[in-house]
Write a structure and sequence with these properties.
Oligomer: heterodimer
Radius of gyration of chain B: 23 Å
Largest interface: A-B, 81 and 58 residues
Number of domains of chain B: 2
Shape of chain A: elongated
Order of helices and strands of chain A: HHEHHEEHEHEEEEHEHHHHHHH
Number of domains of chain A: 2
CATH architecture of the largest domain in chain A: Alpha-Beta Complex
CATH topology of the largest domain in chain A: Cathepsin B, Chain A
Order of helices and strands of chain B: HHHHHH
Strand content of chain B: under 5%
Number of strands of chain B: 0
Low-confidence stretches of chain A: 10-26
Low-confidence stretches of chain B: 1-5, 7-29
Distance between the termini of chain B: 65 Å
Mean pLDDT of chain A: 91
Number of strands of chain A: 9
Shape of chain B: elongated
Number of helices of chain A: 14
Largest sheet of chain B: none
Largest sheet of chain A: 7 strands, antiparallel
Number of helices of chain B: 6
Strand content of chain A: 5-15%
């Protein structure tokens, strides 16, 4: 046995138990990664790589604008890091805050949706073809290094995530490491899509907020494609149904707005919906139908929805001259 | 002195809130109920509180001005600060007003560490708990 071989064996003998004890220490594997390893989720491809996502290298504090430009361009919006910097970067903080990342995407006409705080949701979104912008704390809670990155793929077999991060356009991180750093941001992630397409894994409250945010900056009429997409996915939701009707009305499609309010009122029997239906029918020159809707609105407001009593009262006065 | 000033401020707030409430009611006249109003009322009902009234709208308006001022103090031009706050929801503006100096600001991975932190983070990097150094590989 050679000298070198002996030394190597000694090293292995010392290191092996050390590493084994680390690997065996289950607390090092965070819960969501552990769940994915324990059972491969049904219907999830084992490997995904989104090739067409633009990468903007950043070695300073501008990872907010760089990552936002990346996901905006992937969704088909023209936006550069230089253009986004004044919209999200906060000089005194030398960084970008999360609400402004969402708001800046809406200012460019995109639908920016908060993702569910689940690793599996991120993977499903990637599998559906949408890159995901994540906030991580690269270091530890008492000495944070906040950082935005863009997830562009994963490999379940290797237990890795592919991402754009800082200067590295082809970064591969162990899933466990990603989850540790992501958990320190409270599992913050967002997806950017064209308004006519919701993220595959979007949840109802986040979608409501995303479409309302788009409407706030782009206007009621311009946000119609987003209301259509959201109301089609959740036909039983009052806010989305009202949003679709109001957006149609703002565009001047009064007849279509009336049939939207009609269908929604039939499903949900809501005072606000009956109220708006009464208004639109009145403007369409259908006074008798308008009065009927206003009476339904009043019945609901009296019975169960006192919040609308005042507005419905005004409507009743208008349609009963 | 300070207590009388506080009393005046409260009086102004009360007066302005009743005025703004009246204004809201007038604007609700002869118009469709807006989607943001539906969302706000639904959120308030689900939270179990009273419906959003004029006073909450007023405090939110005041807070927006505070947020604009706060962003200006932190290096933005007046125009950009206004445009950025206008793009936020009431809830986001409130959050920003409270968190502007504490919230995580995604910044990038530059480093200027003390030796202790350097060594600590080197170890946690190798364990896969953190991802500070580009040259480390997690043991697993």
């Amino acid at each position: 046995m050679s000298h070198a071989q002996g030394r190597r064996r000694l090293l292995h003998a010392l290191a092996a138990p050390c590493i084994a004890s680390l690997a065996g220490c289950t607390s090092l594997t965070p819960p969501m990664t552990a769940a994915l390893q324990a059972q491969a989720p049904a219907g999830l491809p084992s490997r995904v790589e989104l090739a067409g996502v633009p990468f903007f290298a950043d070695d300073s504090t501008l990872c907010g604008p760089a990552t936002l430009a990346s996901v905006l361009q992937a969704a088909g919006f023209a936006a550069t890091p230089a253009e986004l910097a004044p919209q999200v970067y906060l000089p005194a903080r030398e960084g970008s805050l999360q609400p402004e990342m969402l708001a800046a995407a809406a200012r460019h006409g995109a639908l920016a949706t908060r993702m569910a705080p689940e690793l599996l949701a991120l993977l499903r979104e990637l599998a559906a073809g949408t890159p995901v912008l994540v906030l991580v704390n690269l270091a530890l809670p008492f000495w944070p290094r906040w950082h935005y990155a863009v997830l562009v793929g994963y490999d379940l077999g290797r237990g890795e995530l592919r991402l754009h991060s800082g200067m590295d356009g082809h970064a591969s991180w162990p899933m466990a490491t990603f989850e540790h750093t992501w958990a320190r941001s409270g599992h913050w992630a967002m997806a950017v899509t064209p308004p006519s397409r919701l993220p595959a894994t979007a949840e109802l409250p986040a979608s409501r907020e995303a479409v309302l945010a788009l409407q706030r900056v782009q206007g009621t009429a311009a946000s119609l494609p987003a209301w259509r997409a959201a109301a089609a996915r959740w036909p039983q939701d009052l806010v989305l149904g009202m949003g679709l009707g109001n957006s149609l009305y703002a565009r001047g499609d009064k007849a279509e707005a009336a049939s939207q309010f009609e269908a929604l009122a039939a499903r949900l029997d809501s005072a606000a919906t009956w109220n708006n239906l009464a208004h639109v029918r009145w403007e369409l020159g259908q006074p008798e139908a308008a009065r009927q809707a206003a009476q339904q609105a009043w019945r609901r407001a009296e019975q169960a929805e006192p919040a609308w009593a005042e507005a419905v009262g005004e409507t009743l006065r208008q349609v009963n001259p | 002195m300070s207590s009388s000033r506080r009393a005046t401020r409260w009086l102004c707030l009360l007066l302005a809130s009743s005025l703004s409430f009246a204004g809201l009611m007038q604007s609700a006249q002869a118009a469709l109920i807006g989607t943001e109003t539906v969302a706000a009322v639904q959120a308030a009902e689900q939270a179990g509180g009273n419906q959003a009234d004029g006073r909450t709208f007023l405090t939110q308006a005041l807070q927006r001005e505070d947020v604009v001022a706060a962003l200006q103090q932190r290096g933005l031009s007046a125009d950009e600060a206004k445009a950025r706050v206008a793009a936020l929801s009431d809830e986001q503006a409130q959050w920003l007003a409270a968190q502007v100096d504490q919230a995580p600001a995604g910044a990038g991975d530059i480093l200027g560490a003390l030796v202790f932190i350097f060594v600590l983070l080197l170890i946690t990097d190798v364990l896969g708990l953190t991802k500070v150094f580009p040259f480390t590989r997690s043991v697993r």
